[in-house]
Design a protein that fits this description.
Length: 368
Amino acid sequence: MRSKAQARVLAALTAIITAMPFPVLGIDSDNGTEFINHQLLRFCVERKITFTRSRPGHKNDGAHVEQKNWTVVRHAVGYARYDTAGELTVLNQLYQLLRLETNFFTPQQKLKSKTRDGAKITKRYGRTDCARIDHMTPAPEHHALATDPAQASGYDSFAEAYSAENETSLNNAYYERPATLALAGDVAGRRILDAGCGSGPLFAALRDRGAIVTGFDKSAGMLELARRRLGADADLRVADLADALPYSDDSFDDVIASLVLHYLQDWGPTLAELRRVLKTGGRLIASVGHPTAEYVIERLSGHRPDYFATYNKTEEWTLSGQATEVSFWNRPLHAMTDALPQPASGSPSSANPNPHRPPVSCSPTTST
């Protein structure tokens, strides 16, 4: 990680939990403030993860973890600290390889048996971590964590129908998706994050153009369809755009958010996360419905919404004969652009004056 800031620690933990081959039931952290904080506690409570801390008042408070500092970390990288973003990238690439070596190929110093033959003692140690997991007794099914229906994605219930509609609809297949691909331009060799990838049509198009694509979506049903389309080796994860993302800092050349931001009430935390995972000089390519068009559609339907308000709207869709409700957040154009991080040069934010507001008074002139 670039630093021990709480947001970065939370993003790293999310990445670890997502990569685990089994549910994480507990986190036992050391006593640093990067762990002992309300943000991580709330993260654990929401996911029903037991959160404890190890040996308070001891310098080696995480002794079972810290014993690996020498055998894993120091053997590979020594004691020097990194100074640049480039060095951090190299370290993260090295740790990915160390993870594979340690978990799959290195037997752990867990004593399995000890025999004595006269003065000679023979010790035998256990398997690799991966092999030990393979020989564990499966947990009873009732011990598995239940899915919280309140946190499940609404798209799971109509994933098949929505995906079929998305393939051929005028708005998606012939308008938004071609426009997004045109904005992306030449993507050969670029690492791209498809945020809210759905069943993977944009992922597939980018990959066909030579991009190295990673995708995530809140809907497990949508991702199952994406795996059918893209293959088992596609880098796909279940993640919520409103939460910390399971990716390291400076991971992607581009982030593409295709018709997904309107599901969020607050864009600020999400845009900050997308900025975190973008490399310096990277691009955010986002598409949303134009607020004027949404306003006109509402007026033609007999409603009188406040264009300048940010408000929730629920629509009923009928897909393949199945009726379902989908919720969006409408907001004016200036609210969208003002939410974007401003560049260091201090470019002015866009103006979108409200005609209902009183005009700004000018300085009075003096008559003679």
